[in-house]
Amino acid sequence: MFGKCQGTKFTVSGTEKVRRGGKHPKGQPSEYALQLLEKQKARYTYGLTEKQFSNYAQAVRSRAGGNHEELFFKKLESRLDNIVYRLGLTTSRQASRQMVSHGHIMVNDKKVRIPSILLKAGDKVSIRPASQNKGIFANLGEKLRGHQTPEWLSFDVETSTGVVKGEPVKGQNDATINYSSILEFYSR
Question: At 48, which CATH number?
């Protein structure tokens, strides 16, 4: 009577479930799903757009030789907004991004408004003198009392100046992100 309803999809028996597509059994996400979740976790952790994040991944993958996971980690950690967060000047990366874009931060004694600038060893990060009296920097010494700054950074509360002493070291103060899984996701 209904010609379109004669296939196995419309079987009435109910005892056998027809599996369609590449679905996995309950509770077992695919490799792609795991890589996507890892990428999204890292993107939201660092507060980046998809375009920014994929550009970092492509730049790392295009470099010949070296440990790509380590390079990817170092690029993400060397961003100015992340360093302001790691120094303990803010409680979140989003707040540090806003602090930089509003012009409260100086790099090597120059006012900077671009949170994505990559810093290297020897760069000096400081609070702009005109901004030091603002409410967000009030009681900075008390706010930093319990803060643990990573070994590759140092911060002097008296002068409100931080210095990048070296390259970021994976495993110190970082979330549990699988960078190789993210790079595999972008290699598709």
Answer: 1.10.1050.10
